[in-house]
Amino acid sequence: MKERMKTVLLVVLVVGSLLQSYVLIFRFPGSDSVVQSKNAYIRTEEMGPEEKPENLLFPDKMIIHLGEDQHTVFYPNDTFYNLVFNRLKGRTFDHFQRRMVSNIDWPKVRSENRGIELSFDSGIPVTLLQKIMQIVPDPLFEGESINKMWLYSVEGEGKIHVMFFSTEGDVVYEAAQADLTVQDVDQLVDFGLNWTPYKMVDGRYYIPVKELSLLSVELPIGEYTVEQMQRSLFFDPSITRNIREKDGSEIYTDSKRSLQVDQGQKWISYTDPAAPPSGENSPGKDVLAAIDFVNQHGGWNGMYRLWKAGKSEDRTLVKFQQYYGGFPILNTPGFHYGMMELDLQQGTVTSYERSLFYLESGTIQKRMAKLSGGETLETKLMPYIKNNSVADLNPAYLPVQTEGRLRLKPVWAIELRNGTVITIE
Fold first, then answer.
1. At 289, which helix (H) or strand (E)?
2. What is each CA distance from 338 to 271, 359, 384, 397, 398, in whole angstroms?
3. Do 345 and 353 form a contact (C-beta atoms < 8 A)?
4. CA 346 to CA 349: how far, in whole Å?
5. How does pLDDT run across 206-239, given as a tens digit for each residue?
6. CA end-to-end span of the chain
7. Residue 52: CB partners within 8 Å, gap ≥ 6?
């Protein structure tokens, strides 16, 4: 009897020891494992809030074609922009057919047919577009990046044409099946009937025929400290050393990773040269990895949109642009703000750049401002029009830092064919 009790006690002790080891390793219930993969991002100091990928993926503008060469433009946060986009996100698109762009007379489609054009400027991978729209998986289509989606009806036809334009420039994909009727699209197009009229210029960009009203605002801003960024980006900040550069910038390094801080611009550049795992780059997966990285290393502090996901050789350059209301905040050489930039290789972040400034809650000063339109705007654009150098034109905010405040000035942002952005007030 005594021996049996000893055996039972020994079994209880062994099971208890195994259970305790399991708890220490995996920290259950409701917690992550202590054992993490080499490339897993470690959650660090809470700074800005996290964001879901679908909230960062939306068109930069929506062009409504009213027929008879009449057009208007909706911008993010416009009531009708949200209404149209939400309706389209619930529709299904399937059976994609590849066509050459040159086989269709697009100026004729634009001027004669009613439709909706969604612009994704620098492009969005189809795998990400599937996160916000009901696009049925298709091997022919899934490897593409799309910079424009265009839905239109042709008089006398009983179906809607739904086109997705590849960033390659010469290819367009038509969804042969879409659960949208001509009446559905007509109803959405009608929202633009009483909106500000726009006209197409040079087949590339639109200008309003009259002035636009935008808010000019002043907002309170805060500033992340270097210590906060160190705790956010280094596994062990206590072993970092500081190097002061001749240009006044400072570098913090743990002999592997480095954090460069431009105190004048309040801009940081973080690099991690860790060798990425072998494999092929996937821009869609890299964008999701970039969002995850920002979620855990600084957060978002405002409204952002995926602006670029460009694949170059063995890396993906990902850029997120900050918005206020429906308009982007420009990142300028004189004041770096409004942009987050990340380089990734096979899902591993190798560089990360952002501002130390962030928007705070507090008193916001607002007043209405006017942006020129019509002939006045065309006159201001004339030097660039003559050189045939304008690629796009959009309302935007020019950030100006004042003492503890950020002033956002409405401007026209002219994107030139060489990628340069010039502003006119």
1. helix 283-296
2. 20, 11, 25, 10, 10
3. no
4. 9
5. 999 999 999 999 999 999 999 999 998 988 878 8
6. 95
7. none
